[in-house]
Write a structure and sequence with these properties.
Helix content is 82%, strand content 0%. The protein is mostly helical and 160 residues long.
Length: 160
């Protein structure tokens, strides 16, 4: 029981230290932007997203924070969320060419994924689908031939 209590206190202290760091970085929007960029540069995308969630709530409609959030989602390969944040930035700054380029990149990736799905269907059909189709047609042809030549000349039915 004492061990569980000590572990709980340790995690509480660890979390409070992190909270102090977060609070320190949220002093103003510039500090928040710099801290978010540092987290992204370090590759701490999950930490960056957690921090940016808080920062975006405190500094709403900040294009830099929204852009960093989109970048974090883009790095995590979550294209839908990244596009959502980049579009919010584009609404705030319609002339931002960097964000337009990122949105174009995401749309190209989405189109590539759609084409890959269609390509996979065609690959399946060409490999296994054609074999299945040939077996089905052979079976159907056999049934048609059997029905055509299955006429009985006599009127007696033999039961075996």
């Amino acid at each position: 029981m004492k061990l569980i209590f000590i572990i709980f206190i340790s995690f509480t202290l660890l979390f409070s230290l992190e909270q102090k760091t977060v609070d320190k970085q949220l002093v103003d929007a510039n500090h928040a932007e710099a801290f978010a960029v540092n987290l992204l540069d370090e590759g701490s995308f999950d930490d960056a997203l957690a921090f940016l969630k808080i920062a975006n709530e405190k500094y709403t409609n900040n294009p830099s924070l929204l852009s960093s959030t989109g970048q974090a989602y883009l790095e995590k390969k979550n294209l839908q969320e990244a596009k959502k944040y980049f579009i919010q930035v584009l609404v705030l700054e319609p002339t931002n060419e960097n964000i337009k380029t990122k949105i174009d990149f995401i749309e190209e990736q989405e189109a590539g994924q759609e084409n890959k799905t269609v390509e996979n269907i065609f690959d399946f059909l060409s490999d296994k689908g054609l074999d299945f189709l040939m077996i089905f047609l052979a079976f159907l042809g056999g049934e048609l031939i059997a029905k055509r030549y299955n006429k009985c000349e006599n009127s007696y039915i033999y039961v075996m």
